[in-house]
Amino acid sequence: MLDLLITNCTLPDGRKNMSVAVQAGKISEVTEGPIAGAQAKETVDAKSYLLSPHFVDPHFHMDATLSYGLPRVNESGTLLEGIALWGELKPLLKAEDMIERALTYCDWAVARGLLAIRSHVDTSDASMLPVEAMLEVKKRVAGYIDLQLVAFPQDGVLRTKGGMDSLKKALDMGVDVVGGIPHFERTMAQGAESVKLLCEMAAERGKLVDMHCDETDDPLSRHIESLAFETQRLGLQGRVNGSHCTSMHSMDNYYVSKLIPLIAESGVSVIANPLINITLQGRHDTYPKRRGMTRVPELMAAGVNVAFGHDCVMDPWYGMGSADMLEVAHMGLHVAQMTSQKGIKACYDAVTVNAAKVMHLEGYGIEAGCDASFVLLQARDVVEAIRLRGNRLKVFKSGAVIAQTPEVGASINISGRPDTVRFSTFS
Ligand code: FE2
Fold it and tell me: What superfamily does domain 56-359 belong to in CATH?
């Protein structure tokens, strides 16, 4: 007797009329058509809807989320005012409020089928308050969200007095990944030095690396080059990620023709944050205004693993968002102009499989042996899922339903039209 049987579902790769069997929290079988003789404690008829591995956000700031308006709103909308505003807020923060906001966000995430999040946590403050708070959140949500934390020296690991010690302390306390922000150090040379020191620390401690890298419109911000070099020098291939890399948008094409193969060769992955990049970058431009997002299709074409992150939701940098990775993919395909069927599917991968690869998630996917943590969407395929930001009808964690949203239908009554048209097929 199976624990769970999903019948008649469509998978992200387009296979239809599939059955997925679950036993003891794991997928035991994936077959086309019915599974002969299968009996299950619970059977779900997917009605041809899409069964997808859960969404993954590989780049977020959970210590700042839902703090919008505290103590004031970012008037200029720039990254730098956001950082200054976060600096004003930090002395006012209380751990219990930060935990409460993060837990609320995690509820939103579960409702949207987002069950793995990599969050940067600010280590600049010697008090370690954000680190302690996020470690507590990680513990509390462990049953339903895989929360991976990055030690993130928001004010610069070398620029801040004691920055390196605080970052080491965060790792000692249990933070998972080494972060950095080379473009915010005092000079290009200091930025490169921070990349070297942090990668060496990660190599020594056997940690993954995820640096905010070149989050600027300055085409001469080239820390991604150092990150790729250090990755190769230290044998960290497949363990390092460059986040944002927005300066690549403005770089000279000749230099980029050298840079992208270097990134591919080093096995460094790249995370773009479409909602935030299109919002924060290009703020010093008149017209034309740059989009600011990194070169997603070109990186993908070169074989670089590219994922999309949400980055911010209702915080000093961004006042929108709702933990919906389909909204992120939707913006990503617009900004990158990835509007072909292949491009749209690649954007779906960027918030699922590619992001899972960045986080080194184990047991991810819809195959026998994987965790039975997936989402039934009110959409017929991944393209429709992005187009409609389809309802998460059922969110499963290890075979158990942890969130549900009713199927939505629209009743209309127009002469010559059917009386009832299901919203997802009404186009
Ligand atoms: Fe970020």
Answer: Metal-dependent hydrolases (3.20.20.140)
